[in-house]
Here is the input.
Amino acid sequence: MLQISVKSNVDAVSRRLSALAYKQLPFAEARAVTALAKLAAVAEKAAIPEVFDNPIPFTVNSVAMQAARKDMPVARVYIRDKAAQYLAPYEFGGVQFLGGKPADLVPVAAAANRYGNLPRGTIRKYMNRPDVFLGPVKTAHDEVYGLWQRPAAQYANKMRGKARGLMANTTGKLKLLVAFHKPVQTKKRLEFGTRAQAIASANFNRVFGAELAKAIATAR
Here is the structure.
């Protein structure tokens, strides 16, 4: 979460205002801070697909904004709680947050959805097949824990009528369907706070000037 406050900028401007303009200052300040927060939120939302490859809409749309008020001229730009849990390590550093998942499930030969993730229930569906098992397998490079499919020749008779959703493994060797990766230290950074503050600073003069002019024009 980042709070957008431009108090120091406003204080500098207020010393040069007329009595009428000064009276309208709190209203203009709240409106300006809200407008700046909206600009920051748009920029944050647009940046997520630049940081992550094909993120799900839930992640992109997790950016939210809370408007400022006349009596509290501070706006908030933040990530909603659920997404904030797994995005926080990409802002502050740390280990991937996997929630209730036992590992980072990476599709290899299993069908993935349009965002590159396993559809819900995939592991359970595959585990119902006699030619699929979950466990570690020693490979030429390392031991890999995952969901594996045995060669079709060993299970030709047992697989009759049960091959829906996954073709038989005709490679003659074990096929890795889903790799189970341990959570790792994150390397990508969202730069959420830095971006929002830069947007607010770059647009302050234009936005505040416009809002102050509106406030003076509509003063009673």
In short: Strands lie at 2-4, 63-66, 75-79, 104-107, 132-138, 143-149, 175-181. The CA atoms of residues 90 and 189 lie 5 Å apart. Residues 2-96+186-217 form one domain. The mean pLDDT is 87.
